[in-house]
Every structure is written in C-alpha cells, then in structure tokens.
Amino acid sequence: MKSRTRYLIAILLQVSLCFKACHAGGEDDDDYNDKEKKTTKSKGVTYDGTSLIINGKRELLYSGSVHYPRSTPDMWPSIIEKARIGRLNTIQTYVFWNVHEPEQGKWDFEGRFDLVKFIKVVHEKGLYVTLRLGPFIQAEWTHGGLPYWLREVPEVFFRTDNEPFKRYVRKILGMMKEEKLFASQGGPIILGQIENEYNAVQLAYKEDGERYIKWAADLVESLNLGIPWVMCKQNDAPGNVINACNGRHCGDTFKGPNRHDKPSLWTENWTTQFRVFGDPPTHRTADDIAFSVARFFSKNGSHVNYYMYHGGTNFGRTSAHFVTTRYYDDAPLDEYGMEKEPKYGHLKHVHRALELCKKALLWGHPRAQKLGPDTEVRYYEQPGTKVCAAFLANNNTRESNTVKFKGQDYVLPSRSISILPDCKTVVYNTAQIVAQHSWRNYVKSEKTSKGLKFETYSENIPSKLDGDSLIPAELYYLTKDKTDYAWYTTSIKIEEDDLPDQKKVKTMLKVASLGHAIIVYVNGEYQGNEHGSHEMKSFVFTKPLNLKTGDNYISILGVLTGLPDSGSYMEKRYAGPRSISIIGLKSGTRDLTETNEWGHLAGLEGEKKEVYTEEGSKKVKWEKDGERKPLTWYKTYFETPEGENTVAIRMKGMGKGLIWVNGKGVGRYWISFLSPLGEPTQLEDTICSYVGEDYPVSVKSWKREGAQIASRIKDMRLKATMKCPPEKQIVGVEFASFGDPIGTCGNFTMGKCSAPKSKEVVEKNCLGKNRCSIVVERETFGDKGCPKIVKTLAVQGYVFQSRDMVIPNVKTLSIDSATTISAFEKLAVGLQGLPHAPILVLLRVLADQENHKFDEFEGNDAGLFVNAEFDDEDKEADEIWEAIDRRMDSRRKDRREAKLKEEIKNYRAKNPKIKLQDLSADEWPNPTSRAAGGSETPWTDLTTVGEGRGTVLSLKLDKLSDSISRGIKQIPCSVKLWLEAAKLEHDEEKKSRVLRKGLEHVPDSVRLWKTLVDLANEEDAIVLLHRAVECCPLSPELWIALAMLETYEEAKRVLNKAREKLPKERGIWITAAKLEEANGNSANVRKIIEKGINALKREGVVIDREKWMEEAEASERAGSVATCKAVVENIIGFEVDEEDRKRTWVADAEECLKRGSIETARAIYAHALTVFLTKKSIWLKAAHLEKSHGSRESLDAVLRKAVTYLPQNEVLWLMGAKEKWLAGDVQAARCILQETHAPKESGLRLSSSSLRTRRWSGRG
User: Which are the contacts of 1087, defined by CB distance < 8 A and separation ≥ 6?
Assistant: First the structure.
C-alpha cells in the first residue's frame, strides 16, 4: 500500500514536470477526462470581471481549505491527492504567524510548520495555492494566529499599521519568492489574501481602521509579486484588491465586487460549523452546499473555496478558547483525512458538472428568466455559436416544480438546481445525490487496549507562594501562552470571634473570574471547580468553607482553554480571577482582591519536568495504585495497533486535561463538559446508496465534444454504486429496497411499496466485491408494483477486510483504568507513524467528583435503556462479531420464519382456545385457586387480588418498556417510539435524556425538539433551541420560540437569520413586530408589517387575507395590540372590491366580536372610518363597540369624532349627550345639546327635558 502511494506520487511528479504550464487538475483512474493542455508563454495572474486569468488562461476555480499545522506532513500527500480526485484545482491555507515566530525573532518552519514543503506538495499534485497571509487569521486558532509576545510590544495595537506586521508580511512573502512559489515564477500560488474579515471590526478603530486597510493593500501590491490580492468580507477593498464573500449562501447574499472589472470570488463556503466544548454535533448537508455552489456560479461566480475541505486536529494548545481539538470534522475530508460521504462525492460531481459548463460560463453572455413564482433559469450563451449552459432553479423549499425551458419540460425537486451544460441535458441536480453514503466507525483495538494499566503522579498543591502583588495577576499575562495553568495563592487570618455563632450560617468563598476555569483548594483540601463557556467566559465560584482559627491558605489554579481569536482590541482581552472574597464572617464580607498579598506561579511541576517525555517521566515518582485526585498525571505504554489504519484515542472516564503521545502534544480534552446531546459510538463500517429512478445519470458519464454534450460510455443507464476502502469487500447487505424506503444511511426502513427481489438482486451484484453497481430500473428487480410512484433504491451494506481479520476505518485506544472517573465521551485525534510501544501521558486537571452513580451511556440517570447491549464497553469486539453473525444469518430468515409459523399453527390445532360462553356449569373451575406453592387462596382475599393486579400491571409496563426499547433498536428513526419511551419515564430529567437520544437519530424532528424544550428551564431552552434551529432550519415555530426567549438584541438577530432561512414565512415578520411592540418601539410595528408583506410579495407568496386576519386576532390574544392593529391596517383592504368594502369590513368586525376579538374589530372599524367618514351606520357600530367593550372615555372620543364628520345627525348628538348624562355629568350633556344647529332646536329641547326627567326619576 505504501509503495503503491510512492509510485503514484512519482508518476504525478513526472506529469507535473512535463506539463508545467498546463491547467491545474487531475483525476482518479475511473473519473477523469483529459483537460485542455493549452500552454502559454505569459506567466502570472491577472483578472477581469469574469474570472482570474492564470498564465494567460481563464479558469473556474474549485478550492478547499487545508491547514498545514492541523495535520502531519505524512498526511499531506494523501489529503491533497483526495482533494485532487474530488476535482479541486486549488488549495487554500492560512499562514500561522504564532507557530512560526513563537518568540520574537526566533522562527520555526520545521515539521508540521513547514509551509514551503506543504506548498510544494500541493504543486507536485498539480494544484494551485491561495495563500491567506493574515497577519490576523482568526481560524478558531489561539490568538487568531498572532504571537503572544506582540501583546508586550510597547504602543502596538493589533490590526493596525505597525512595524511588526510589516516585518512579518515581508518575511513570509520573501520566503515564497525565494523558493519561486508564485505563479509568476512558475509556482502554484495564484492568489493572496491580506487581513481577514476586517470589516466586522473596522468601525471600532475609526480613522485608524480605514488607514490600516489602505496600508495593508498598498503593502502587498507594492511588492509586485504577479498575483492578485483579496480581502474577504471587505466591501470597500481599496485599489486593485478584490473584495470576496464569506458565508453559506454567497450566491444570494453577496452584493458583488465593488468594481465592475473585479471577479466574483467566494473565499469561505462553510462546510459545517466548528465545535466548542459543550456543543452538540452540527451538520450541513451535501445538497445544501451543492445548491449554494451552483447558485454562485450561475450568478457570474468563478471561484469557490470550501472552508474547511479538511479540518484536521488542533494539536497541543493551538485551539482558540473553548474550541475542541477536533476541527471541522464534518468537512468533505474528516479529521483523519477520510472521505465523508456523500458530501465528498456530491461536491465532486458538482465540480464536474460545472466543468462541462466552463466554456459558456467564461465566454457566454448571462441571461435570467423567471419561470414561475418559485422557479427561474439562469443561462449563458455565446453569440454565433451553439455554446450554451443553463441552471434551472426551484427555490420552493417544500415542493417540487415542473418548468418549461426551450420547449422542454423539466421536473425540479424542492430547493434544487439542475445543471444543463448544453441547455438541454440535465447532468446534475443538487438535491439528487448519486454519490454513495457512508458512516465512519470506531472499533476498539484489542491488541492495544488489552491489559492497559496506568501509573499516576499527582501535582503538589502550593499553599503559599512568595507574595509579589497586592492583586491577582491577569491570567493571559501570567501564562504568556506557554501553559494553560497558573497558581494563585494567598492567606487569611481568622480570629475566634470572626466565625459565625449559628450553625446554619456558613462562611463562603466567592471567586469571580473572567475565564476560563478554576480549581480551588483551601488549606490543601480540594473545594471544587467552576468554568465558563465559549459564549460566556466569565463565571462565579461559590462554596461553603470550614475555616479554622489562625492562618488559612487559599490556592486557586487558573485554567485556560486557549486565547481569544476574534474581535477588536484583542490585546485588551483579559482572563483569570478578578474578585475574591470571604462572605459570612461576623465582621462582614472580607475582600481579598486588593488587601492581600498574592503569590503566582505559571505552569505545573509536571510540565516543567516534561514528564510527558520518556526522559522527563523519570524525574518523578509514579504510583501504580495512587489515590484518586483531581490534579493528576497518568502514564502508560501500549502496543502499536494492528493494521495501518488511523489511530484514535477514546477518552473514557476522564474530566479535563491534555494528552501527549511520545512527547508530542495531541491536544486538549474536556469530557466532563457535557453538551445538551451526546454522541453515540458506531460499531462497524457501513456504506449505502440511495438513488431515485428519476435521478439524472451520474455526471461522470458525460463529456463535452465541442458545443455538444455527449456520453462517455455506452451503457448510459442510471446506476447505484457502492465502493469500499482498499482491500475491503462487501460481506453483507443489511437493507435493500426498491420502492419508497424511509430514513437515512444506517437507519433505513421499509416503506409501503418495495420490490420483493430487492435484496436478492443487490446481494447477487455486490457480495464479495470491493465495488459494485446496480441498474436502477424496474426491469432489474422484475417489479411491476406501485406504477404511479417514483421509486428509489436504498441499499445498506457492511464491509470487511479481505482477510479474516476486521480492520475498521478508525482504531481506538480505549482508556479505562480503575483510577479514571467521570463521564463517557470520546476524543479522537489522528496519530501517525507510531513506533513500537509508544508512551501515552495524560494530565487530568478537572473531573466529576460525584460520579459514583454515573451510567456510561445515559449519564447519571440510567433511564429506559440502561440494559441496552451497547452499554458494556468491554464487550465491543464480541458484539461486533455477534452482530455480523446475526446479519449473515438473515439469508436463512425466511426459512426460520416459515418453520416458526408452521409450529405455531400445529400448536394452536392441538390446543384450541376455550370460549367461556361454551363452558357448562360443571366445567367452571372451583372458586379457589392453587398458588405456586400449592396453597389455596380464596377469591375473597381482595388484598392478594390487588397485589396480583399490581404485579400484572408492572409486568405489562416492563413488557411495554422492553417492547419500545426493542422497537427503537429496530426503527431508531421512529419519532413516535422515542416519544412513547419518554412518556414511560416519570422523572423529567430522564425524559429529557431519552428525548436527547432520540434526537441523535432524528435530529430534524420538530416534535422531539419541542417536547424536549418544554421540559427545560428557560436557560437550557435557549441553548436547545439554538441547536434545534440548526437541525430544523425550516421550522418557523422553533425560530419564533427562540426569539421569544432571547434578549431584545439577540432576538432581532435570531429573527433575521430565520428570515434568511424562511423568506416566505409570515410568522417571522409578525414575531418581529411583536418584539418591537414588547420593547416599547410601537412606531416600528407598522413599518415591519408593511415591509414584511412587501417582502413576501417579492418572494412570490400569495397573500392570504383570511390567514393574516387570523394572525391579527392571535396577536390580540397574545397582548400585542399594536401588532394586531398594524396587520389589520395593512391587510383589511387586500383583494376586496371597492363596492364591497363597507359590507365586507362590517361583516369582518362583527365576526371578530362574536369570537371576542375586540381590538381586531376596533381596528377594522377605525380603518373603515378613514375611508367612509360620513357613514352613520359604521360610526354607530364603532360607538356601540366602545359602549359595550370600551371605556366612557373611548366612547366619548368616538362620538366627538363622529359628530365632527356628521354634524347634522341628531342620533349621534343625542347618544353623546345621553352618555354624559348617564355618567352624572348633566352640565356636559347640556353643553352637547347646545352645540346643535337651530333647525333641530325644538326637538332637542324636548330631549333635554326628557333627560332631566329620567335623571330625577331614577330611570336610566
């Protein structure tokens, strides 16, 4: 295998030498058609409004981010090769200043930091390079890539015009030029980036920010390196620097270059979300990424970069604060460099489809046409030729659409784009994935993990260090990025009369910290720990103390999880304890922050002695059965794992700390920081295929011949394919259905229609093979059933090593010693080139001290599935074999079931059921019953009967629990089963755990999320809802629920995101209006509703008047009266004919009154009266509403306004006067009557007399 890799690299190197000037690219043995091999004498890179022009040739660029320090040099060739096979032609990387110059003036370019070597590897593979220089990079890398020592350079502000920045830029670019790595020198670097997303912080720097951007642009352009430069998310990129887009959907969000002669470049298309400690898993689907790429290129885009294409590992202490060691694991190439399917394959296919459109995209004229409310076409034609390429888009997120283009009908699945390289033939659809699906799985290495034993060494706890300050030092300054740890010590003298007399009164230690975690000791005894989070670094630790009279010593270990990586004025960010006090003393609170001497010590003793190395480990005494302590080093030796696959460490029973293997820092782990959802461990390799019979033939089946698209192969039938890793083969088909299967890879279930021969056909084609394909046609399966549905073939198989030994994709070293404690979790990091008997050293600084009841799978509450088979970690290997045996036995399943049915039939024939009504009196049993022990139990013993009934009920519940548990194992994607399982739990925490397990299998279930959120407190509900909207971005109720719980500013951000995801959802706009109303911004409410209706119209949404009126009433019931009125004002006249307005509006108001919607009716009448100012009937109805449901003041206001427009209407005058009289204000009533006109005087005088009579007689 290794030699084969060497031969492959050698061949590629020869090709590279022979065709130095050819287009970057390449292909695997079954996929690649020859590219144009056009050479040119011109060197260097230029651009225009269409694309970059490399060595005189236009290019479409498909790029992927791969960071050289996040993988090992041994991995680089394999990663780059897989990127090339994935049809990338460019690799993008940051330059990491702080690894290259950790100390000022001392440079490091060795090992993982060998930037030149990495770029040359990319060049050898025939790919281009984009160099993102920084100096600031963010990248979830500690300090955003800036070296710590920069903080201590006098008068230096980060991300401004300063001398260290200039020196660094010239150093790196000088190296690249010296090594002849720029395209103008024949090298691979075609594009550079200076700074990173500066626009987000520029306003904070005011005029200095503008000067800095101009300075950065001038600096790189003045070097004349023959390549263009970009600034991402910098709308005002100066001069010739190109402004580029970062985000998930730049095809819709990017406003375009700031100058017409600059190309549209996408520097970061986020393939997933980076993880922080405490986060549940996140996922971005392959079809969503493909849709975004097709959209961008259809709108004149010519460059896309996937951030990340391979995330890798944050080795050592290189991650930013709270960022996990594993980085962007859900990228097309995972942490280990293995293909993450179907993401890898589906994006590979979109690149091929775009290549078929290359000529039209680069030389054609763009056109766009609306085909329907949710559909459109964007196409490029080259005048005078037959060159044409089209992108048919369906923007409806829920329904498919049929469109007509150039006289032909095309069916577009929901939210998808079909690519037609000749404006006729669909070669690719973003939603129809023909690439195979697969799981990555972990299996414990038996060779490595057997007999694993740890020795321990515990750190001494310093009680009193020499006092060097009257306040605790800042933690970043104290550690200087050399360690994560620093000690703070002080002492406090307690007199006898300081301690409280009452037993219930406790003295408390309170520590307010700016982050990230602390461990507290008092008088050498462990008191506890506390920590912040990525979102909220600061926290407060409080703990009751048992102080003694005399001197008491307080020791605090400050713990970091990396330095900050974003924002303005990073040099002013701080961490560590900021306020320490003793509460509960008789003399009152004693502040220790500024009144005590504080001693400090950076680093741990074990770090200074380098106990994680072979030599350093000899400097301390290790114990085999040491006492369990929080601050402990663990050391072991292990055998090199079997096989040549990636090795990972699974941390079981550890809290928080660091890992070293052979003296190399692998990374941080923090297992005890639990997320709202856990991560299950899979047990075997699984590959799947899911292809619908209406899918287009794989794009690799097509090629371009001039202006035409032609087939590359004779057999152009649609096929479902499965391909195993090298030296493995398919040994079983776990599931196969040609019909309407349900679920995803690993969780397929049968639908209502499936061809009977599905599994037989797949097994015949695939068993025992490394790769196989099945023609997706009804004839293949001899199937004539369900003729009216579009059928899909879903296949799930499992793979095996060709030899007799299982070698899975990832071998794990499972840590499980008697001295380890805390939660079950895993941390997997790539370990390359392990020698025989490597040394593993772990530092645990935080641990769960109350885990004696902790269940490894379910947490502290075991829950319904406590006895599930996967709970016992030590039996993993046996379970794998048992699972394989069970599945291999499936071929005999039909025979076994038939036999069982026959036996049941015979049993029932011999033992017929007895019908009670057929029994004679003599056949009835005696009214006594024999118990198990043979004694007689009278029927009249009701206590025993009750106990028996309870036992039966308990047994039934147990059976129900077992039944649901088994059902979930068989159908883990059944939402109904998970909900029923949760109902069986009586404790809310256990219900929550069951629901969280369900969400691991069905993360897009809105019902499960809603049920889980309902059980949570407000704080936890916010965290859960943030994850819920990521998993279910098309659920308006989840977005709205999150907005209702968040603060005002955060709620606005949530609703803006919701609007992007659901541009056609009216509920988002209504919630935004309610938010403004609740925060006293009533003036904005009407504007938001009006803007929302207009936005929905632009999206092609049909405005449903009845639905909007229902929303108005709902807003009233929710107490949002201003929102209710705004909706009525904007919608009441919609689609109502002019002659019907009065009748319709009055009817609307009366219906609202019947339903008790007073404010809605009031708003309708108010609007109607702005149109019909002189309609007495409407004024009277409005007055009657106020009389029945309003106040005297509101009624008076209506009547006063009414007589203003109808001064001759005596009914309104009399009504106003009467209301004043009834209120006891006779004088006001007289005044109203006196305001009337003379012609009505006699009648009105009579009315006035009548009013007095009624008043005096007591009649109302």
Answer: none
